[in-house]
Amino acid sequence: MKSCLALLSGEPNRLSCSTRSDQSRRWHALQRQTLLWLGSMLLMALAVTAQAAPNCYRYGGAWENNIPNKLYLYFPTAADATFPNYPQTCGTPVSPAQPFNVSDLDPGIGTTAQLRNGVFDVVTDAYCEFNVQVKQSTTNPDSFGSPDPRRNVVAVGSDSGGCFGVAQNVDLGDGIAADHARVWGNSYPAGCGPTRAAS
């Protein structure tokens, strides 16, 4: 079965028909871009109010839970030492994943829940055409009684780090079913705009 997907950034701007194996390769290439996307979406959500729900045409359908690939936006409410700590070159420990709190970023834009929902809405719309279900959680998805076997968990904290974010692996060929990434939300305003000190 073939379907047409837009090529990823950095490739010619055209549509290409692809097989499922090509889609898998592109899905994993897209994972590498997730950190940059999340940061951009975080800044966008800081600038606008949250939408009521994603605009993705397939969002919320009962069949959506049958999509095997899950992308969790994990917004911790407290420091989480159970989040995997993996080698990286940012100079900031990945674990414990720090809490996500709008007051660390810009309390004038709304509540923490509104910002979480805004980021979720934008990321869900961005991934709409891919074989992935975007979910958000304030609990580490790895700790669920039966976690989804094919998942990527991106912990988004409102702390600052030595980089915007870092992925655990570059998973070419889809050899790793459960993968992780970490985003330092306050690194974006610090690197791209007004800075607020994280409390």
In short:
The protein has 199 residues and is α/β, with parallel strands linked by helices.
Structure report:
With 199 residues, the chain is α/β, with parallel strands linked by helices. The chain has helices at residues 20-47, 112-126, 187-192, and strands at residues 3-6, 15-18, 70-74, 133-137, 151-157, 165-167, 178-184. It has a five-stranded mixed sheet, with helices on one face. A two-stranded antiparallel sheet has the order 1-2. α2 links the parallel β3 (70-74) and β4 (133-137). The radius of gyration is 17 Å and the shape is globular. The protein starts with a strand and ends in a 7-residue tail after the last helix.
Q: What percentage of residues falls in helices of 4 or more residues?
A: 10-25%
**H/E series:** EEHEHEEEEH
Number of domains: 1
Q: Helix count, per DSSP?
A: 3
User: How many beta-strand elements?
Assistant: 7
Distance between the termini: 51 Å
Please summarize the sheet with the most strands: 5 strands, mixed
**pLDDT averaged over residues:** 77
